[in-house]
Amino acid sequence: MAADRIRPYIRKTPIFTSATINKMVDAEVFFKCENFQKVGAFKARGATNALRSIHPGQLTKGVSTHSSGNHAQALSWAASLAGTEAFIVMPDNSPKVKVEAVRGYGGCIFFCEPTLEARETTLRRVIEETGSIEIHPYNDSRIVAGQATATLEMVQEIDNLDLIIAPVGGGGLLSGTALSAAYFSPGTRVIGAEPEAANDAWKSFHEKRFVPSLNPQTIADGLKTSLGSVTFPIIMDLVHDIRTVDEESSIRAMKFFWERMKIVIEPSSAVPVAALLEKIPEVRHSRVGVILSGGNVDLDHLPWAGHAKR
Amino acid sequence: MAADRIRPYIRKTPIFTSATINKMVDAEVFFKCENFQKVGAFKARGATNALRSIHPGQLTKGVSTHSSGNHAQALSWAASLAGTEAFIVMPDNSPKVKVEAVRGYGGCIFFCEPTLEARETTLRRVIEETGSIEIHPYNDSRIVAGQATATLEMVQEIDNLDLIIAPVGGGGLLSGTALSAAYFSPGTRVIGAEPEAANDAWKSFHEKRFVPSLNPQTIADGLKTSLGSVTFPIIMDLVHDIRTVDEESSIRAMKFFWERMKIVIEPSSAVPVAALLEKIPEVRHSRVGVILSGGNVDLDHLPWAGHAKR
Q1: How far is A13 from chain B (nearest CA, A)?
Q2: How many Cβ contacts (< 8 angstroms) between chains A and B?
Q3: Cα separations (Å) of B295 from A179, A258, B69, B107, B247?
């Protein structure tokens, strides 16, 4: 299974707690720190699982993907570890620190316009030219199974969680979280947290049909993508609810978390923290897990810069 | 002893490692994360030890100190826990986040000019008015014994350290580190790391006489103070060497650390990291402990802001 397959390569990340936050929300909260994961995000799990599921003989021409950042880093890193190439299609407005990190892990970057259409067209061209195998950032059951291992680790370490909150972009992490909860901790509900400004999962979930976001603008750059054909059905089946948070709440939550917890989380991780603090009153008197998806931030462009009063 | 006295109140902080940093310096490095300590800094140890060494009957009129920040927070917090008052004299240019934190822990602040003379005069007046007991930030053997517990924890957890690097301001942490190394891990050398711009310890150590810094300017606001009559002799006796780092190196080290390790360290903690990376070539092929003193940073005024190219 995925957990065994990826164990030699990834980190079993620590779980942090905070007396201050527990008091604020009147609950016991456990933060699964995927910001300390290899490449700084949970994406290392999915990428490693997908890559290690392919027969090495088929990997000679490399792997490829389009990604706004963390999956790109993760796939580059995992490919490099496995001795093959990663071809990465990235939107040309990706944070500088993520572009540099992909290069640092040995990924070969092709820039495109920051639209889903441009990404897909460019990726088709790259695959034709290189003969590489596509590893989609989230709409792939091997990716979902890899991401699921974060929650597996958490429920193995923390008993009787009433609820787990995970961010939702394309839904790879959220559907993996829901699968692990359903299999390994059936009493645990799962709630997705999404930026209001990229609320395709919230809309799709409540309208019970796929409603994509078109070029959404949010500081949570990892959550701009829309659900896919693999992730949406799992989320409809196994996720209890989806809550949205506005940009100001996410920025406030991110800054608060840095100040109090002394750990660097990226905007996409601030979204479930903001949901915990403001949008899920039913956490009261319960045991709550929160998945901090990653810690890759451009320190030269922090979202509160120029807003010193926040 | 101090460790037993403070155990119910303080945190046994985790030790972090980084394959990247190990590779960069060709050594095995262990970071003692006092940024995760109560109040965000090792100062919680000394303040708790000093306060819990005083008979409760003598504490009724409170405690007082002058401090540029972390000791102020720590004493306010420890006093509040012990059910007494803390009167804090702070320079009026202290970072906003530290002032607010002192207030948040219930400390009662008296502002003064940012000179040692103004601090001492104001404190004398406060003590006269309140009848409180002074707890000096570092020149007090109970404080030194408290700070020493960080290194005790580290050498209990990590065998055979060749070297420990600690920042030096007033010398409470460095002399405590040296005492713990001498008693509990006699094979371990201790090196102090100091900002070039506040190099009184370096000068005093090499000239073998006390040479104070007068109003030094450095981003490492916790390291502006000069050694004292309690700390200087211990440092002369037990510390192997002191190395200085320039401001640019500290800023670079701080940013690098946030980016790679995903943890928030304050400028005073970046100083030993910068020393590790640039000024202590003899770490090569050895096992090195680094004390990260704290994580209290004003996120609205990061030292690299406006210098995006760094």
Answers
A1: 12
A2: 43
A3: 37, 9, 12, 20, 18
